[in-house]
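Kindly inspect this today.
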Amino acid sequence: MKSFSSYLRVIVLVAIAVAGTEYLMETEPGQWAVLEYPFAGVFIGIVIIFAIAIEASLASLKNVLYQALSEEGKERYHAAETAKASKLEQKWESFMQSMTKSKEIEEEHEIILDHNYDGIKELDNRLPPWWLYGFYATIIFAVIYLVRFHVIGDYTQAEEYEREVASAQEEIEAYLATAEDLIDVDNVTFLEEKDDLKAGEKIYTANCVACHRADGGGGIGPNLTDEYWILGGGIKNVFKTISEGGRPGKGMVAWKSDLSAKEMQQVASYVLTLQENDPADGKAPEGEVWEEEE
């Protein structure tokens, strides 16, 4: 595996594998699947190994076939490879010549000007076609732009800016709606979906029944079924209490290190549904009656 074409084939194959992986696997904007998912990186590594192994095998097979040739056959092979290389070199030189339109050193006397500054002479080279065509393209673009925005009167820069800002705001709102870890006490809302309340019940059962009982009637902790609240009711206050903990020295710990923001939102929503319960031996009210502010 020493030829340029071998390296090129490996690079192309790996690039296709990477592009396919990034296209088929869902990731957040700006993230790479090969970095976010370990098995994607493993897959790319396997592709690289197989590509190198195939090229090495082909090179070995080519070498075996070469060794099997007679001396005359080897000479013909070398002659063919040299001719192929010469043709490729000629094509490359021809391409570069067509892109620059420059004169060969031996022909520069045809375009030399009379200007002479202390032995420094000037050549009258033609403009490179790539530059010239690019310049023509800018002229065409300028004419189209002029007609579109200054003659016909398409949208203005202010309108374009407002559209882009509105589009960006929609994307931000869509992202915030699905970004569970960005929930905080300022934007938390009550969850009404059964799946969320069911998840909240599981979290409550695993972490809260020891102090508040399964029905919310209260034990070590206060009664969660009445209208009295020590640190305030409503989804925002309950979420904050779960996240930051209760009063110092009263046993209610902060759960923000153990539960995600989404999980705290779910359990806070479930806690508020406990007010529908009517435990027979509920703990006496603590705190003050809390009413939702309008």
User: Anything to note?
Assistant: The mean pLDDT is 83. Strands lie at 112-117, 120-123, 228-229, 288-289.
